[in-house]
Every structure is written in C-alpha cells, then in structure tokens.
Amino acid sequence: MSLARNVDLLRRLPKLDGLRLAEFGNSAESSSPLEEITSFGANPGNLRMFAFVPAQLQQPRALVVVLHGCGQTAASYDLGAGWSTLASHYGFALLMPEQQRVNNANTCFNWFNPEDTARDSGEARSIRQMIAHMVDAHDIDARRVFITGLSAGGGMTSVLLATYPEAFAAGAVIAGLPYGIASNLREALDGMFHSPERSAGALGDLVRNASDHRGPWPKISVWHGSADRTVNPGNANEIVKQWLDLHDLPAEPMAETDVDGYPRQAWWNRNGETLVESYTITDMAHGTPLGIADNDHRYGMEGAFLIEAGISSSYHIAKFFGLTDWIRGAETKTPTAKPTVAAKPPAALSPAPHLARSIRAAMAEQPAEPNRKQSRGLDLGAFITRALTAAGLMK
C-alpha cells in the first residue's frame, strides 16, 4: 500500500472509529468503575484523567498506568482489557489517561509529535503530572509505578519510559513502536507500516538523549501479533533492540519458551531478574490478546482491537510487573497465616473457567483455521452486529 493511500485511510478513520466503537464505548462508560479526576496539576497535553483505587491495596502500594489505543476511551479499553478487574483482584491502583478528539481526531495519543514526546512537555508531562498526583494522594510507593499501552498508547508508553525512566519500575508495549523514530506524520506512517531497521546503538541513543537519566533502566515486556497489518510486527524487534542496548544485554535471547502456545523470548541480568521479554502472538492481527489467565480467570472481553487469542496479556503483564502474588484479604504481617479466600471476581470473568480451559486445550489439537485470529480482529461487521444485539436494536 502506498504512502498516499495510507494517508487517505487515516483521513477516513474518524468516521469509521465513531461507528465501530459507539455502542461498546457507551456500555463501558456505564459499567466502568473509573472515576474522572479534574484537578491534578499542569495539563499542557489537554488530556483527561481517570482512576480506580480498590478498597484493599497490597503493600507496598503499586500503581499501573494504562494507555488506550486509537478510537478507544479509558473506559472502553478498561472493559476490554480487564484492568480494573485485575486491580481489584490483586490490590493495585489504576490510572487511565484519556485522549480527547480536540487533540487527535482518532483519539490517538500523539506519540510522534515533538511537543508531546519531550520531557516536561505536552502529553508526556500531563501523564507525568497524573502519576505524581496518584502517588501523593494514595501513598503509592514511587518504586512500584508501571505503565502499559496498546498501539498509539503503546507508542506513548515508549515515550513515557524514555522521557521519565526514573519514574517507572517496568513497562509493557502492545502492538506499539519504539521511542524517537518519528517526529511528524510521514515518519510515523513509515514506522507503522514499514518499520525501518536501525542499529541497537542508535535506538538506545534515542532514549538516552531523552533525559539526563543514566540508569538503572525500567524493565520492559513487548507484545505483538505476527499478522498485524496496522503496526508492522518489525516494531516489536526494534523496541526489544532499543531496550537490550540500554540494559547492555546480548542480541540473542537467553531463553525461548512457549506460554499458552505462543513463543516468548527473555533476557535477564546476572541476578536472574528478567529485564526484557517479548511475546509473538502468531496469526493475530492488531490488538490486545485476551484469554484465560493462569489463575483460571478471564479478564476483559472481545471488541475492536481486543482479540480472543487464548492468552491473557493483561494478566501476564501484571505478573511481569510482580503484582500477582498478593491475595486479597491475606494477613500480610503473618506469613504463616492461612490466606483468606479471595472474593468471587466480577461477572467480567469467565463463568466456567475450567471448562473454558478444557475447550481451549481441545481446540488446540484441531487443525488451525487460516487467519482465524486476523479475521476476528478486523471483522467490523461482526462487531457492529454484536453491539447492536447487545443494545437490543437487533435480534
């Protein structure tokens, strides 16, 4: 596809996004536990701030920042990816900044605009101010702040990790792009569709030049579908190269394993702590992969760019952040005490997780359907039909 056709596609996206996400967004707004915070400090990026803090928080207290993708809202991405359910289940605070159409017609975070991607400027500063507000208001341990995002939100995750590396213990980028590869729309499109290769040193320098920080650097988890036609999967390799260079790690993975049937590569330091990991979701299109988690729960629900793939990326990212060992109601001061059984999760979780896991295992033994995940991720007509049916407008 030519650059001119890509630009034409972007011009048409506002109308498509409005149709595709209308019902899903309205449903999310009514059911989301997120609350808007209107006063949090300087807001040069003109973003909205939404947050959720469950009644019980693990100690020391942690915060996860989640950035939605294009055409989405904080509430719709929360509903789809299941982050507030995870936050309630594992006891961490949640911050979900939201883009406004006045800033970007497709509600994409402006991950390539120089004014929004520099330290103490634009959208990057707005999000940093929100984080500072949450840390102060809820006694968050500043050493336990994490960030993740999808697509343009993934690109902005790279921005925050580069411009404020001292503020984060770890990050996770889903179908996103490395920091610093674009400073205008033409370069952004080239990065999205073609992902030009750069040397690891050059990529690392882009991050080193974004602040005065010289380490230690945040850990990072990278996720991408191999059939992504919106953001070239090569971007995952470039993100990995960028952070391997920062952590002074070798190009060859130190371990290659399968997690829920998908390849995972990992690199660790001399203490055995994983600093960089990368998941390739084979045959999946552009979006956040969903599935049954290790604890037999399902977090989130399918929607536009939220794809059933048999693996729960939100859960595995929370696990990578070190947030899944806490048990709600457990006695934290007495390690030998018997933990209280966690309350039953909300309805967003799978009603029959063991059966679902058995079905998934059975399906894995069958021949794969060509492009099954890709068609699920991009079937606009099917999604609209489901949305209309849920709204009672179609039978």
List keywords for this structure.
disordered N terminus, two-stranded parallel sheet, disordered C terminus, alpha/beta
How would the blueprint of this fold be written?
Layout (H helix, E strand, L loop, with lengths): L2 H29 L3 E3 L10 E5 L10 E5 L6 H8 L1 H8 L2 E6 L23 H16 L7 E6 L1 H12 L6 E5 L10 H9 L6 H9 L10 E7 L8 H13 L8 E5 L2 E7 L5 E8 L6 E3 L15 E3 L4 H8 L32 H12 L7 H7 L1 H11 L5
Helix pairs in contact: 1-2, 1-12, 7-8
Q: Can you characterise this structure?
A:
- A hairpin with a 2-residue loop joins β8 and β9 (262-268).
- By secondary structure, this protein is of the alpha/beta class.
- The protein has helices at 3-31, 74-81, 83-90, 122-137, 152-163, 185-193, 200-208, 234-246, 313-320, 353-364, 372-378, 380-390; strands at residues 35-37, 48-52, 63-67, 93-98, 145-150, 170-174, 219-225, 255-259, 262-268, 274-281, 288-290, 306-308.
- The strands form two sheets. A ten-stranded mixed β-sheet has the order 1-2-4-3-5-6-7-10-9-8, with helices on both faces. It has a two-stranded parallel sheet with strand order 11-12.
- It starts with a helix and ends in a 5-residue tail after the last helix.
